[in-house]
Amino acid sequence: MRINDASSRSRTNPTPEILAAELQAHVETLAGDDLEGRETGSLGGLRAALYIAQSLAQAGVAPALPVAPEGSTLSGYLADIGYVGFPLRTEPRLMVTTDAPEIDGEAVFTGAHGVDFDYVVGAPAEGELELFVVSSRAQAEAVKPLRHAALYIHGSYGDRQQWLEVMGSPGGRGWGALLLPGWPTPGDHRPLPLHGVASSVDATLPVMLRVRGPLRKQLSEATGGTIKLGIEGLETTPAYNVIGVIPGQGTPDRPELAREVIVFTAHYDHIGIRGRAATSPREPDDPAPDDLVFNGADDDASGVAGVLELAHAFAHEGAPARTLVFLLVTGEEKGLLGTEHYLDHPVFPLADTVYNLNLEMIGRPDPTVGGPGRLWVTGPERTNVMGAMEAAGIGVGADMRPEQNFFQRSDNIAFVRRGVPAQTFSSYALHEDYHRVTDEAATLDPDHMQAALRELLRGARMLAQGELDPVWLPGGNPYAPADAGAAGR
Ligand SMILES: [Zn+2]
């Protein structure tokens, strides 16, 4: 944050400018390797939340929630969304005992985490889990209850789902562990960093391990073998939305505007570290990259940086007519979990929430909308917002790729389903670093971001000052139930 002397507080003076250097600093922090891809429920995700809360506080934006009695001021920015992650703080240990006929007697094999197996997902139990390995229905029938068994199916995801359905255990519920066939040879991937999150929103899901190399071969041959899985030092990690508020004060003509709310959003979560790629590889023949972190610089550290800079700018202007909420959500990549949580627990009533302006992937220019300094709007024909901004000479354009369904692919759609007019502003041009470890801060264009956000700030002021009243255009929202109409003006 820049020095704010007394004169710059005056309403007549220019607001603190949105600066490329500040945007770049936000993105470099959020997309740095030490934040480990900001997966929901990970330690990196938690550090990102604290950084964002700190940034809102430094920008002069008030916390949206009561400050915890014994907590720091930052606690007032953090809304726990109820998602629990299980970061691996110590290396899980795995021991496999088989009595396969081709092996003379009993064989004991110790699997190394990150080499022979990866912890994929599930709510692990602390201590040691001893499980029979089964790979046929007959074996499973002999092991009741199923939570004493680890299921290994040598086959596809589809095969496994079918098998589980036959067993009456959808999603794998009831099993002690599911052993998923991974890459044939170890060493295809580097070991997972220790903080790789084994997370689940649903603690009833079993532990899932991806096995490979000799362990995979051994399990596929095992008859009546057992595995022992040991985990120590297990702790849970919460996941937070980060929320700040600038209260509105209405206008002399329209005092009621103070009650109306504009919500600015961007998601700060991304997809974590290499584990995700190791478990669902995009191209199995890809060589193992040295880089394990999915940085998510464009997706969506860029949008978070944008919301933080808009918040910073508004905090140094006079009080807006409408109330402004700055909502940086987690859980987008896991299915809009953070935004849905906010909508179930809004800071201000949804009936008073007149618009959601969502920023998603604004880090690089898009030629289809005029290149550097310009953003496009999803669903431009659905509300009066883009038309009103264009009429005011603001350089925003329509999303030129409607076939990509971007209107439905970010947090705005959750607001839309509740009837609130909501659109995403973006400049994503389908670059190939999307959801790859190469979505790095250095690939972004801070000058483009600065220019685009300064332009957008002018449009955001129209919303904040009540010069633009967002409404659905006829037929603009087929997604909301009919009775949600009251929230969408
Ligand atoms: Zn995104």
Q: How does this model look, in words?
A:
This protein is an alpha/beta fold and 489 residues long. It folds into two domains: 11-82 and 239-484, Zn peptidases (Aminopeptidase), CATH 3.40.630; 93-231, Glucose Oxidase, domain 1. Helices cover 24% and strands 20% of the residues. The chain has helices spanning 20-30, 43-59, 137-142, 157-166, 213-221, 275-279, 297-315, 337-344, 385-391, 412-417, 446-464, and strands at residues 62-63, 78-85, 93-98, 107-111, 117-121, 127-134, 149-152, 177-181, 207-211, 226-231, 237-246, 261-267, 323-329, 353-359, 375-377, 396-398, 422-426. Strands 1, 2, 11, 12, 13, 14, 15, 16 and 17 form a nine-stranded mixed β-sheet that branches. Strand 15 (375-377), helix 9 and strand 16 (396-398) form a beta-alpha-beta unit. The longest helix is centred in the middle third of the chain and has 19 residues, at 297-315. Mean pLDDT is 85; it is low at 1-14, 276-284 and 485-489. Bound molecules: zinc ion (ZN). Zinc ion is lined by residues 267, 299-300, 332, 360, 410.
Question: Which terms would index this structure?
Answer:
single chain, 489 residues, alpha/beta, Aminopeptidase, Glucose Oxidase, domain 1, 2 domains, nine-stranded mixed β-sheet, 11 helices, 24% helix, 20% strand, elongated, disordered N terminus, disordered C terminus, binds zinc ion
Report a brief summary of the structure:
The protein has helices at 20-30, 43-59, 137-142, 157-166, 213-221, 275-279, 297-315, 337-344, 385-391, 412-417, 446-464, and strands spanning 62-63, 78-85, 93-98, 107-111, 117-121, 127-134, 149-152, 177-181, 207-211, 226-231, 237-246, 261-267, 323-329, 353-359, 375-377, 396-398, 422-426. It is α/β, with parallel strands linked by helices and 489 residues long. Strands 1, 2, 11, 12, 13, 14, 15, 16 and 17 form a 9-stranded mixed beta sheet that branches. An 8-stranded mixed beta sheet has the order 4-3-10-6-7-8-9-5.
